[in-house]
Every structure is written in C-alpha cells, then in structure tokens.
Amino acid sequence: MLYYNSEIDRKYPKLIDYFKRGINDEDKNISHCLLFWGSDITSQCELALEIARILNCSKDGSMDCDCLNCRWVKEQTHPAVKIYTRLDFKEADSAEDGETAKGKKNININQAKAIINELSVTSDYHRVYIFCDRDDDGNLKPLNRLNFPEATSNALLKTFEEPPADTTFIFLTKDRTDIISTVVSRAQSFFVPSALENDYSYDLVESVVKDYWRIDRQQILEFEANFYKLALDNEPKIIFEQFQNYMLTVVKSNPDNKHLFYKLIQDISYVEDAKRQISLTPAMNLQAVVENLCFKIIL
Ligand SMILES: [Zn+2]
Question: How much distance in Å is there from the Cα of 19 to the middle of ligand 1?
C-alpha cells in the first residue's frame, strides 16, 4: 500500500507551509515528536510522509523534486522513513509468545527494543518513524491504548524525549486521549482536518462563534479579530466550514425559532461566499474576507 500523495500540498497548504518553514529554519524549528489527531488517518499519514520527504530532501524540498531521497519517500522505500504498526517488524516479534504477526494485538516491547537498538546506530538520513495501526488489508487505523499500550510507550518514553539527532517521531491518532498523557505531553499536537468528508464538527470554532448572533455590533472588532486569528492559525476553509457546521447544528436544535432560522440560513450563505472568495485565483485577502463576513452577520 502506497500512502504518499503528490497533491498533499493542496490538501493542507497551511500545515505544509508551517512545517516547511520550521524545517528550513536555521534551528530546525519543529518538534522531534509530532502528534496528529483527527478522523482521517490516511491523510495524516500522507502529511507525515511529506514531512519526512522535506526533512530528507537533498535539494530545496519542492514537491516535484526528484532527488534520490524524495524518490525513495514517494515510493515508500526510503531506508530511514518507516510506518510502524503492530503488524510490521516481524523478525523482532517472532520470539514473543509464539504470536504470529497477523494475530498480533499491539506494538510490543520487542518492537520498542528493536527501535531503541536501531537508533543507537548513526544514520546518514533524517529518520522518521510514523506510528499508527493498520488492518490486514493495509487500511491505516489510529493508534489507541490497545495497539500502542502503556508498557510500550513507557519503554520508548526516554527515546521520545531525547532522541538522537535527526530523528522525528510522528503519532497518528483519532483523539489525543487515545495516547498516554506522558507521550502527549512530549509531543507537539496538530489537528488534521478530514479530507474525506465533512464530519460536521465545529470544535475549532466553538469558543469564538458560540451564540454569535447575540454579539453587539459594538463588539464586532473583537469578534472579527478572534475569528481572523482562528482562520490564520488553521486552514481558513476548515474554519469557515466548521462555522457553517455550527450554524447548522443550531438550526437543527432550535426548530421553532423562525427568526434565528432565517438569520442562520442567510449567514450560512455569507460564509459560503467567503469560502469562494478565498479559493479564487488569486485569492482575496483573508483579513478582508473575514471583515466583510463579520459586518454581514453581526447586526
Ligand atoms: Zn528532494
């Protein structure tokens, strides 16, 4: 199964830009422990592989680079870029309780030891270990406390904390609470929005947009600043989509409030306009789009 996506930069422009800047920074300003969370594990893996590619690229890291490192990552044959699941690493497991790889329930201590051994040898490459789960058909699944148990996490904790130079660990999971907190606290977390389908969530925007129709026009600048910050810190399109999800949820839970219903339906279309404006080529200035939207919805 190949997971590299050659259009990943269009899927997550903000996240890719963030990591690119961090990697190209003189001080390699990205954490050596990254935790991705969200419902779309395959997209998380694509993103992880792209980070691995940029970290290893011997040229400028551009998407179409054809240096040996980039070619290897794209073909998933790079010797230092690995997707680790409970089903991989067969040699190391064979000793353990006669389990076959197929029935193996978790990433076990033997795997942890093998990783530690492997890291004790220096590498010419930037090692990237992507931890997740998969089923027998190769479909990627999130890590949880069953497939990545506490004993294994603990065996690797020191390694996660102080890895050898040029080593990055990436954990793929649905929810941060599925990973033991000692690992989470050592990792930099990123929400990776689902690229598969709209998941109707609005957790990223709720604190800012909750009951926004009650906001007084005098406070519009504050609302606008908060909303703009959300859009800057995340993929703007996702923020607008989550805002729409929030509005739809309110509409559904207040079926008898006609006034609110009409307002929200109107506002959903204003947000749709904003989404269109930021995807134009060239895109409209994000701040202007947000400002325009706020003046339409805050009355
Ligand atoms: Zn390259």
Answer: 15
181 and 234 co-located in one domain? no
Q: How many domains does the chain have?
A: 2
Domain boundary among 167, 191, 215: 191
Q: What whole-number distance in Å separates Cα of residue 225 and Cα of residue 202? A: 19
Question: 185 in a domain, yes or no?
Answer: yes
Domain extent at residue 163:
8-191
What is the structure's pLDDT at 244?
Answer: 92
pLDDT over 90 (residue 256): no
Q: How far from each other are the two terminal CA atoms of the chain, in whole angstroms?
A: 52
Cα(60) to ligand 1 centroid in Å equals 7
| 88: nearest Cα among 116, 47, 52, 130 | 130
Res 93: pLDDT: 46
Cα of 68 vs centre of ligand 1, distance in Å, is: 7
Ligand 1 centroid, distance to 43 Cα (angstroms): 21
Q: Encode pLDDT of 225-243 as tens digits.
A: 999 999 998 889 899 999 9
- Distance (angstroms) between ligand 1 centre and the Cα of 53 equals 7
